[in-house]
Each structure stands twice: as C-alpha cells, then as structure tokens.
Amino acid sequence: MSALALEFTRPPSPLLVEPLVRHALEEDLGRAGDITSDLTIPADAKTVARFVARKPGTIAGLIAAEAAFQLVDADVTVEVALPDGSKAPAGAILATVSGRARAILSAERVALNFLGHLSGVATATAALVAAVHGTGARIACTRKTVPGLRSLQKYAVRCGGGFNHRFGLDDAVLIKDNHIAAAGGIKAALERVRAGLGHMARIEIEVDTLAQLEECLALSADTILLDNMTVEDLSHAVAMTKGRAVLEASGNVTLQTVRAIAETGVNYISSGAITHSAANLDIGLDLV
C-alpha cells in the first residue's frame, strides 16, 4: 500500500476507538468475566492464533481488534500481515495474535465483531468505487450509521476507497426538505444560514426537482444534493449546473445503478447502505 493510501486511511484517534471497544468488552464479559475460558484453560497457558479471511474482501477494523486484545491483556501482541485498507483473498492471513490463551479467547468475539462488520463496510464501499472507476465520481457515505460506531464506520468507508460526508450535525450545513419547509423556502433557508454561519463551514442544500435546482443555482449554492432523481434528470441537472456547484446524487444507489448515475457527470454519489446495510465479511480466528 502506498504512503498516500495509508495516510488516506488514517484511523480515528485511540481516544475514540478505545471507549467503543471497552464498552463492547464490558457487555460481553459482564460481571463474572469469561467463565468458560477461566475454567477450561490454565492461567499460564499461551497460544498463537491467526485472523483468516474466509471470503475475499477489503479489510477494516484491525485497529479495533487489536484494541480488544490489549484491553483484556496488555501483553497480547498482534502482528498485522494485511493492514486495514488491504484487499484480501479468501484464505488470507490478516494478522497473528500471540499471548495468554485465556485473554485471546476472551477478546475473540468482540475483536471479530468489529473486524467482520467494518470489513463488510469497506468491502461494500470498494465494490461501488470499482463500479464507477473512470467516471470521476466519488463514492461517499452518509450519517446513516450504527449508533455509536460512526467514527469507525466512516474510517471503514475510507479503507474501501470512499469519501466521508459530514461526521455530524455540527461540522457542515445540509439544508434538507424539512428545513426548507420549516424555513419558508429555499431562499429564506439559505439567507438565514449565510447570515449566521462561520466562513470555514460548507453549505449543501437538498433538492428533488430541476426547478428547485434552478433556484439554488440562481442563489449561488455551493453544493447541491440531488435527491432520488432519475438518471435522465441527473443528466439534465449536470447540464444546467455547468460546473457552478458541486453536485451530489443520492437515493436508489445500488451496485446495479451506480455506474449509470456516475456517468451523468455528478461529482459525488452518497450511499447510506454501505454503512447501515453492509453484510458482515466472514473472518475467523484460528488457533495455530
């Protein structure tokens, strides 16, 4: 993996990752800990295990898996063979885990839950990215994330070659249909935002008709989200815009439709499914 790719997939801060993993371990270990491992395995027994991809996919979440082992036992070591962002064929060894057997088995399920889910997100993202290759369109995620896992899911999207939309309600403005209705129209909503927003934040506005797009263009909107438009209308929207605003297409984005959407010339295509509906990538932890 290139230095640029590694920079692009830079993981969230441990300050964000560790509490999520700690909470998952607390949920699993409960009040008494792993009674099965404690009763069946001698306290001083050590072992080596390997994360193995059962199916091909794009890897994400080894940072969370490693945190799980470290939180249970700081002496457990994880040697990564294929880092997050790597394409793994079926049967590939992703990492080797060494240390006390009790600790490894106690953290196993939490580590696999994070690794399988986040690799699923990365794999789903990578499939869309591959489908639009050569068009110039970028695949982006949304705020449709599993509660509590947003920072990790957005990291997984980056591992899959996608781009992040806003992280929350506080880092960018997205004026949606309900905001427009409550504010009294597109012009009123934009004017109020511009009057109060700092110069460092971006403004995006959602439209679902070409007439609304025309109004936004007349008001010099920065970025316009084209919601649930047909491919024909998306093509018209690109022609109308003539590069005056960044265009994002959203709605009805699937592996079967994404190429046609990209070929209209939109700049971004956002998908909620890559985070809220990604299939878990089958990964196992096998003792050597």
Give your account of this protein's structure.
With 288 residues, the protein is α/β, with parallel strands linked by helices. It folds into two domains: 3-122 and 278-287, Aldehyde Oxidoreductase, domain 3 (Alpha-Beta Complex), CATH 3.90.1170.20; 131-276, Alpha-Beta Barrel (TIM Barrel). It has helices at 3-8, 14-29, 35-40, 62-72, 101-131, 150-159, 177-183, 186-196, 210-218, 231-241, 258-262, 273-276; strands at residues 46-53, 57-58, 77-80, 87-88, 93-100, 138-140, 173-175, 203-207, 223-227, 246-250, 268-270, 283-287. The strands form three sheets. It has a six-stranded parallel sheet with strand order 6-11-10-9-8-7. It has a four-stranded antiparallel sheet with strand order 3-5-1-12, covered by helices on one side. Strand 10, helix 11 (258-262) and strand 11 form a beta-alpha-beta unit.
Q: Which structural traits does this protein have?
A:
single chain; 288 residues; alpha/beta; Aldehyde Oxidoreductase, domain 3; TIM Barrel; six-stranded parallel sheet
Mean pLDDT, as a whole number? Answer: 95
CATH architecture field of the largest domain? Alpha-Beta Barrel
Distance between the terminal alpha carbons, to the nearest Å?
27 Å
Tell me the CATH topology of the largest domain: TIM Barrel
How many H/I helices?
12
How much of the sequence lies in strands comes to: 15-25%
Q: Name the structural class.
A: alpha/beta
The CATH superfamily of the largest domain is known as Aldolase class I
Write down the secondary-structure element order: HHHEEHEEEHEHEHHEHEHEHEHE
Task: Tell me roughly what share of residues is in helical segments.
Answer: 40-55%
CATH class of the largest domain: Alpha Beta
- Main β-sheet, in a few words? 6 strands, parallel
